[in-house]
Amino acid sequence: MSARRLALLVAFVLGAAVLVVIVVVTPGELIPTPPGGRVPADPAATFSPAEMGRANSFAAALRPVSLASLVLGLGVSALFGLTRAGAVVTRAAARPLGGGWAWQALLGPVALIVIGRLVTLPLSAYGEVVRHRYGLSTRSWPLWVRDVVTSTAISAGLTALVVLAVLSLARRAPRTWWAWAAAGAAGLVVAGSFLYPVVIEPAFNRFEPMPPSALRSDLVALAERSGTPVDDVLVADASRRTTALNAYVSGFGSSRRIVVYDTLLDRLPDDQIESIVAHELGHVANDDVLTGTLIGALGSAAAVALLGWLLGWPALLRRAGATSAGDPRVVGLLLFLVAAGQLLATPVQDGVSRRVEARADLHALDLTGDPAAFTAVQRELGVANLSDPDPPVVWHWFFGTHPTTAQRVAFAADWARAHGR
C-alpha cells in the first residue's frame, strides 16, 4: 500500500473513532416526557416584545457582518492556497532574512495570517461598532486594537511554529511525516487544554480572588456538593470589554477554579449566580472538557492524516506552485485546507455542544433544585447578552453552540413538571 493510501486509511479509521466517541458520549433524552407532553419553546413567552425587538434588531445587524467576514476570510485563504499567490507572499516574507526554507516556513504563515486579518479588519471594526451601539461592548478603541493585535500575534505565532514543525517532518520523512505530525497534533490538543487557563486567559483578563462573602462560601459549597471541589473563586474584569454576563470553571485538579465575571456581581442576585455556576460545574462533573479534549485529539490526528493524503496529490500541489509537502511554497495551501476543514466540522461540533450544554443545564437543576432561579437567570442572560430569541433554523444548526433561551426555559419547565414542582 502506498504511503498516500495509508494516510487516507488512517484518516478514515480515526474519523470513525471520532464518530464512535461522539455517539457514545453525546447525551440523548435527558428527562422523560412529563405528563401532558413537553412545554413548547416559545420566545414570546420568555421575552417582552421590546426585548425581542431589540435582540432581533441586534442579530439582524450583526449576522450579515459575521457571515461576510467568514466568507471573505475563507476566500482570501483560498486565494493564497489554490493559486501561486501564497507561494509569492511566503517567499517575499522570508527574503529579508535570506529566503531559506525554514524562514519561509516560519514567516510565511505569519504574513498570510496577518494579511487575512487585515482584509477582514473593517468588518470586525463594524461589528464592534454594532456591539457598542447596542451597549454590549464597553471596550475603548485602543483596548479593541490591543485585543486584535494580541489574538493575531498568538494565532500567527503558534501557527508558524506548527507549520515549521510539519514542514521539517515532511522534509526528513517524506513518506511518513503525516503520521508523526498526527501524533504531535493530538498531543498539542491535550497540552492546550491544560495550558489555556494559565497562558491564554491572562492575556485578555485580570483575575482577583473573590473577597470572603456568603456568595463565595455558597459557591465553594456548591462545588463540593457537585463532587468537583475548587481551589479558588476568582473574579474576572470582564466589564472592561463587555456588559455580557458569564461564569465558567477552568483548570484541572488542584488548579481548578470558578471564574465569575464582575458584571454578574453587579446585576444578578446570589441564587441566579449559583445557578450559572452549577451549570458550569456540570461540565466538570460530566468530564466534558476531558471528553472534548479526546474528541479534539482524535479529530486533529484524523485531519492531519487527511492532509497527508491531500498534500500527496500532484494536481493540488501544482495549483499552489509547490512540489511536495516539504516545499515551503505549500504553506498557503496548508492553511487553506485547515480553514476549510474547520468550517466543515463546525456543525458537527456545535451539534454535540448543544446536547452537552443541555446536560449541564440538567446538572444545574438537579444540583440547586431551583427551576425558578434557573429560568430567571436564563432570561437575564438572554437579555444582557442580546441572544437571538428565535434564530433561523439553518443558522442555529450550523453556528449555535447552546440551546436557545426559549428552549432552555422550556427544559426547566419540563424538569419542574417531571419533579412535581
What does this structure look like?
With 421 residues, the chain is mostly helical. It has 16 helices and four strands. The N and C termini lie far apart (63 Å).
Helix content: over 70%
Strand order of the largest sheet: 1-2-4-3
Number of helices: 16
Quaternary arrangement of the chains shown?
single chain
Beta-strand content: under 5%
| Global outline | globular
Largest beta-sheet details: 4 strands, mixed
Can you tell me the number of structural domains?
A: 2
* Cα Rg: 23 Å
The parts where pLDDT drops under 50 for at least 5 residues are none
Number of strands: 4
Distance between the termini: 63 Å
Which structural class do the helices and strands define? mainly alpha
* Helix and strand element order: HHHHHHHEHEEEHHHHHHHH
The overall pLDDT, averaged over residues, is 93
List keywords for this structure.
421 residues; mainly alpha; Zincin-like; four-stranded mixed sheet
Summarize the structure.
The chain has 421 residues and is mostly helical. It contains 16 helices and 4 strands. The chain is globular and about 70 Å long.
